[in-house]
């Protein structure tokens, strides 16, 4: 059966659609009747309803029932479908009589039906051209009781109260309600006028017990009254606020007119009007706009000559100038961003990959909290310039502030607005200057923040750099919340040991290692030399730096993990060429190794390893510093004495403990190592680490100290071209260490041929570029004994 429905009512008949049936003719209920599905409303027993139907089958069923004075079964559709089937009908409906047909065409019919009784469909017997089904009557049962009488009176009272509170009802419905004492009729009639979903009305139709049905109707009426009372209260408050606003507007206009007539304070009035307009244009959040408006009203009452006037006016200016909703549009083209990052920086694969991941996620998810990235590495590795490249790749504004030496918490969170010189913190000041609420914000040198009696700036940064808190950052000066979640924060540090633990936990740390000789050569050609030629005015006088010349500068005139000194030396050569051009001397156009020595003078650094011979008790170690990796020499000597260990070289507590542990391991394993077990009884051992003015600490020198002692006590020379690093235990185990890449680069710079690493650092070594790994041999150890024959030569 294919049918469509349109149960919309004529607006003019809406109020008289339902009337209580009192004296209808009795119609016998046959075993099988026609089933008429509807979808907009329910026909209840003893009530009448106008329905409008589409479909030839339904029109035929209605006309036949009306002509033969037969019953029809009206049921409700479970789902709104274009071509319903009998499986889509509810089983419980209403046996009804077609009282009158208003309009009937070939496609539509409108008729008045009267509900008779509740029925249940037990079996469908026909589906075309309309549905017929076997039915059974659902008989209602109830007994007269005081409870029912009270319920009827309560429902009547609530229904009348609902009408008083504005519920739209037909004019004659209230008098009719007063005449009804039947609980079933009362429940059904009130249900018709309740604002319920069709499924809720169907449940009430299926409920046979009138008392239970009446209780539910009472509950719905009570809820409806509460909602209407609340709406009335809200409407009253809105009306009062509107009257108050109108009154204030009228009084302000009068005040302006009076001031104009008197000719007083006209410049200030114009200023207030301008401020008021700017507040509206600033697109502030509602709560902030309320604060600004209140402050403007306060400003009107302050004497312009008062210092307090300046404080209030400055505060308003900051509120207006903050970019509350001004954003730059992100460049989400990953290929373009990747190209920009490659143009500005060589290598740095992990950093570039992380930025491209951020762009990819931002493209899929519009509202994205900005990550907190921390670039950690030696000086001169491009941490700060990398932030500028990220801003250029994203198309965002770039902000940078240096945190080095900051000791006042107010630098971050602002001053309290209690004196004339109060200002917002650096965070909000820089965002105001940027003019956008989603810049790239670089916090440089986060590991060099100070702390004193004025507060702890590192703790103040916790709220700024916490994605779960910074969406409502409150500056002490502004005293209103600002959303920092759109800002992409980038911090830089040389080491993380001095950074607050909680602050470090909020950041995603990306380590930037130093550069190898090959990497420095490529960076010099691609970035440093073109930059210095441009900065020194040599564009018209091309200078060709040969690879051998750059390598000579790297090896003999710089000894660093980064690039700063390399750039300085290249700049120095460019300046000397500029001097030749201005002095009209013969201009050097090709930079060769001998040219480097001519311009820069004698070499500044020498290989400390390959240019020295192997010695007993002197072992090469590897160290990590905040400026990159470096080599150290552990020197051990033995003198006549009695059980004394002397440590020099400005060693920290951990290095001193490593020395003691090394001595204890050797004493406990002396016999196995071929060492006199009584050596310590008549000896004084002195361990020295050169460059005594430089503080040194860390556990990675443990294996170096131990092998140096074994070299001394066994009289076996240590190979200077072999370097070690690793932490030791009293049982002879070698534990993993950090800073592997920096240490390896330092070893290569110093001419080391072989390094000894803990076995658990194998993955760290494998992550290093193949070009670097091929320049040095790596030996992995788990026990101290495994390093002895690798490092020590046989006795001469």
Automatic annotation (TrEMBL):
MF GO annotations: ATP binding; ATP hydrolysis activity; ATP-dependent peptidase activity; sequence-specific DNA binding; serine-type endopeptidase activity
InterPro entries the record matches: AAA+_ATPase, ATPase_AAA_core, Lon_bac, Lon_bac/euk-typ, Lon_lid, Lon_proteolytic, Lon_Prtase, Lon_prtase_N
GO BP terms: cellular response to heat; protein quality control for misfolded or incompletely synthesized proteins
Catalytic activities: Hydrolysis of proteins in presence of ATP
EC number(s) recorded for this UniProt protein: 3.4.21.53
Compartments (UniProt record): Cytoplasm
UniProt keyword terms in alphabetical order: ATP-binding, Cytoplasm, Hydrolase, Nucleotide-binding, Protease, Serine protease, Stress response
Primary residence: cytoplasm
Signal sequence segment: none
SUPFAM superfamilies in the cross-refs: P-loop containing nucleoside triphosphate hydrolases, PUA domain-like, Ribosomal protein S5 domain 2-like
Binding-site positions, ATP: 377-384
Family assignment from sequence similarity: Belongs to the peptidase S16 family.
Stated name of the protein: Lon protease
The organism of origin for this protein: Kuenenia stuttgartiensis
Encoding gene (name): lon_2
């Amino acid at each position: 059966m294919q049918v469509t429905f349109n149960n919309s009512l004529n607006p003019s008949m809406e109020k008289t659609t339902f009337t209580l049936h009192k004296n209808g003719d009795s119609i016998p209920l046959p075993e099988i009747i026609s089933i008429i599905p509807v979808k907009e409303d329910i026909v209840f027993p003893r009530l009448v309803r106008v329905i409008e139907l589409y479909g030839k089958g339904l029109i035929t069923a209605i006309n036949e029932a009306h002509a033969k004075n037969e019953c029809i079964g009206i049921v409700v559709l479970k789902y709104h479908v274009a071509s319903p089937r009998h499986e889509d009908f509810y089983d419980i409906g209403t046996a009804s009589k077609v009282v009158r047909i208003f309009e009937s065409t070939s496609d539509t019919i409108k008729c008045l039906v009267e509900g008779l009784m509740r029925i249940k469909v037990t079996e469908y017997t026909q589906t075309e051209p309309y549905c017929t089904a076997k039915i059974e009557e659902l008989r209602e049962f109830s007994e007269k009781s005081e409870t029912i009488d009270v319920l009827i009176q309560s429902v009547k009272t609530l229904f009348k109260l609902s009408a008083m509170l504005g519920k739209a009802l037909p004019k004659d419905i209230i008098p009719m309600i007063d005449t009804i004492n039947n609980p079933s009729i009362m429940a059904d009639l009130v249900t018709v006028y309740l604002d319920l979903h069709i499924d809720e009305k169907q449940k009430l139709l299926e409920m046979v017990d009138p008392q239970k049905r009446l209780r539910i109707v009472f509950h719905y009426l009570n809820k409806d009254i509460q909602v209407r009372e609340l709406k009335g209260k809200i409407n009253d408050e809105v009306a009062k606020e509107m009257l108050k606003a109108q009154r204030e507007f009228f009084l302000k206009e009068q005040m302006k007119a009076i001031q104009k007539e008197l000719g007083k304070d006209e410049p200030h009035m114009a200023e207030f009007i301008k401020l008021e307009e700017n507040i509206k244009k600033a697109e502030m959040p509602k709560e902030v706009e309320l604060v600004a408006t209140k402050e403007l009203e306060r400003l009107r009452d302050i004497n312009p000559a008062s210092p307090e006037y300046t404080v209030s006016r400055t505060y308003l200016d900051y509120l207006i100038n903050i970019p509350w909703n001004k954003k730059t549009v992100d460049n989400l083209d990953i290929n373009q961003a990747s190209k920009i990052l490659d143009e500005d920086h060589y290598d740095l694969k992990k950093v570039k990959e992380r930025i491209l991941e951020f762009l990819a996620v931002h493209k899929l998810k519009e509202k994205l909290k900005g990550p907190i990235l921390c670039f950690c590495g030696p000086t001169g590795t491009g941490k700060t310039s990398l932030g500028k490249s990220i801003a250029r790749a994203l198309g965002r504004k770039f902000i940078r502030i240096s945190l080095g030496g900051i000791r006042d918490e107010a630098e971050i969170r602002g001053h309290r607005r209690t004196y004339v010189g109060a200002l917002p913190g650096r965070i909000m000041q820089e965002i105001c200057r940027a003019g956008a609420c989603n810049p790239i914000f670089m916090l440089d040198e986060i590991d060099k923040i100070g702390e004193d009696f004025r507060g702890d700036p590192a703790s103040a940064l916790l709220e700024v750099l916490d994605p779960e808190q910074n969406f409502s950052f409150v500056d002490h000066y502004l005293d209103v919340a600002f959303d920092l979640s759109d800002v992409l924060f980038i911090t830089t540090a040389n080491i993380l040991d001095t950074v607050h633990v909680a602050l470090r936990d909020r950041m995603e740390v990306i380590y930037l290692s130093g550069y190898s000789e090959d990497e420095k050569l490529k960076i010099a050609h691609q970035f440093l030399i073109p930059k210095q030629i441009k900065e020194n005015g040599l564009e018209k006088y091309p200078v060709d730096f040969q690879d051998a010349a750059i390598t000579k500068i790297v090896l003999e005139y710089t000894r660093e993990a980064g690039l700063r000194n390399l750039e300085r030396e290249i700049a120095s050569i460019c300046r000397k060429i500029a001097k030749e051009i201005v002095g009209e001397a013969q201009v050097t156009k090709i930079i060769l190794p001998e040219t480097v020595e001519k311009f820069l003078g004698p070499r500044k650094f020498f290989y400390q390893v390959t240019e020295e011979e192997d010695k007993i008790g002197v072992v090469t170690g590897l160290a990590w510093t905040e400026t990159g990796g470096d080599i150290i020499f552990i020197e051990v000597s033995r003198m006549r004495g009695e059980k004394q260990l002397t440590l020099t070289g400005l060693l920290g507590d951990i290095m001193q403990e490593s020395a003691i542990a090394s001595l204890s391991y050797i004493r406990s394993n002396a016999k196995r190592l071929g060492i006199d077990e009584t050596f310590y009884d008549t000896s004084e051992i002195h361990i020295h680490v050169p460059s005594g003015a430089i503080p040194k600490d860390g556990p990675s020198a443990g294996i170096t100290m131990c092998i140096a002692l074994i070299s001394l006590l066994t009289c076996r020379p240590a190979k200077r071209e072999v370097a070690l690093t690793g932490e030791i235990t009293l049982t002879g185990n070698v534990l993993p260490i950090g800073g592997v890449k920096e240490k390896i680069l330092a070893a290569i710079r110093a001419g080391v041929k072989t390094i000894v690493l803990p076995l658990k650092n194998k993955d760290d070594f494998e992550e290093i570029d193949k070009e670097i790994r091929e320049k040095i041999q790596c030996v992995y150890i788990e026990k101290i004994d495994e390093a002895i024959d690798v490092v020590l030569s046989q006795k001469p």
